[in-house]
Amino acid sequence: MSDDETPAPGWYTDPRGEAPLRWWNGRGWTEQTAASPSAGAFAPPVVPGTRADQPVADQPPAPAAAVVSAAPTVVIAGQVRLLSAWWPRAGAYIIDALISFAFTLPFIILAIVLVAGIDFASIKVVDNQLKGISTEDQAAVGGALLLLFFGSLLVGFTYQPITMARKGEQNGRTWGMQLLGIRVLRENGGPMTYGPALVRQFLVMGLLYGVIAGVGNSFTIIGGTVAIALAYLWPLWDKENRALQDFICSTHVVRD
Q1: Dist. CA 180–CA 87, nearest whole Å
Q2: Cα(228)–Cα(41) distance, integer angstroms
Q3: Cβ contacts of residue 75 below 8 Å, gap of 6+?
């Protein structure tokens, strides 16, 4: 459709066939639908592509029960979806972080038990060598660190990728996203399977961001932290509400 054929905002026949009428906001189809108008309720809908020069004031008004959303939208697999605002994304991230910590907590407790008997106050570094710690205690410390590493790795490989790869209504959602009514959709319209979910949630948001933060902070004290903060805050000014992980993984976070 050319610019000259773009219709003004108004109620039109629903192109998805989900309702008699759907609201066109001048840029794309919204999630607002309505039943067929009763006689005299408002002017009949026009077909998109006609009467493009008609003033907005002359367009059919919204029914009293319908509220036109000004939220930005994106078209995925031929469907118009409302994009999530930043706050639900931040809230879901915090909830998922707390859930991940809860899953990691047993490993933390076991690691503490392993090193509970070590007198760390007596340990000193002399000529680049540890003094005041026995071989058994060194083995306990090493075991505790390995336990924490593999425990964190196990949680990273399971919780978020597996919950997002669920089929049906919960596809593309962690438990945090599910609570706040948002989900991740792939640009190609395909379902969120384990592989793409693992790449987005663990390799990008976990491993890559961790490396950026560590390397950046080692050179500039807080440069890495600032970079990651910008990556997460990017949806606040991006026209499609996308964060860095969405650009890298070709995804959008939408409202249900």
Answers
A1: 10
A2: 52
A3: 28, 81
- Closest listed residue to residue 170, CA positions, set 203, 133, 143, 197: 197
CB–CB of 176/99 below 8 Å?
Answer: yes
pTM of the model: 0.70
Query: In the predicted model, what is the mean pLDDT of residues 26-36?
Result: 77
Q: Domain limits of the chain? A: 3-70, 86-255
Q: What is the pLDDT of residue 75?
A: 87
What does the alpha-carbon distance between residue 238 and residue 124 come to, in Å, rounded to a whole number? 51
pLDDT at residue 158 tops 60:
yes
Where would I find the beta strands (DSSP E) of 20-168? 21-24, 29-34, 73-76, 79-82, 124-126, 129-131
Q: Residue 123 has which token pair?
A: 């340990």
Strands (E) across the chain are located at 10-13, 21-24, 29-34, 73-76, 79-82, 124-126, 129-131, 182-186, 251-255
Residue 45's pLDDT is what? 44
